[in-house]
Structure formats: structure tokens, C-alpha cells
Amino acid sequence: MSWTVYQVDAFADRPFSGNPAGVCLLDRAAPEEWMQAVAAEMNVAETAFLVPRDDGGFDLTLNGIQRRLAAIGENLDRLSHLCDRLERIA
Predict the structure, then answer these.
(1) Which residues of 29-60 are buried (b: 16+ CB within 10 A; e: fewer)?
(2) Which one is catalytic: 32, 33, 41, 46?
């Protein structure tokens, strides 16, 4: 399995401000224990794990430092900002 991990600042217009979060781009699904270990290592409020689907979309898993998080409300808003930041990087 290969992966790329980014730390991005959501809700920010400059580096080292806003709310830091991790984004891990995977080529296939990963075990829950591994994702939780990566999220703990990132040590930020949320780490999103994205796996590409055949239809061009992504499957999402969102983990906090200690547990899996629900992908609802503020978490999805933050993820939207994270994806916007990633588009600027790519």
C-alpha cells in the first residue's frame, strides 16, 4: 500500500494559522488500527483518509487522535476546506 500524508491549515489564508488537520491519500482501504495509529502520530484534531473509487469520487474515513469521528457537520465543513487546500497544492 502506498500513501501520502499532508498537514493542512483549514480555515486559513496563510501557513501556520487556522486549524491544522491531516489528510492521508491512500491507494486502497487500510485497517482501522493503522489509520488510528497514523491519526495519533499526526496529533491534530482530525485526520481524513481518502481512498479513490472507480466512479471518480472518494471514500472517506475521519479519525481523531483517540477514535474514529463521524463525518458530519463541522467535520465535513473542515474537510471541504482541506480539499480546497489540497487542490492548491496539487
Answers:
(1) ebeeeebbebbeebebbbbbbbbeeeeeeeee
(2) 46
Q: Catalytic site residue 74?
A: no
H-only helix segments in the chain: 32-42, 73-89
User: Amino acid identity of 27?
Assistant: D
The verdict on pTM exceeding 0.85 is: no
CA torsion angle 25 2 58 40 (round to 10): -50
Instruction: Tell me the backbone φ, ψ of residue 31, rounded to 5 degrees.
Output: -60, 145
Catalogue all structural domains in the chain, each as residue range(s) with its CATH number.
Answer: 3-89 (3.10.310.10)
The one-digit pLDDT tens for each residue of the chain (90 residues) are 678 888 887 777 787 887 888 888 898 999 989 988 999 998 888 888 888 889 887 888 887 767 766 665 565 666 666 666 666 555
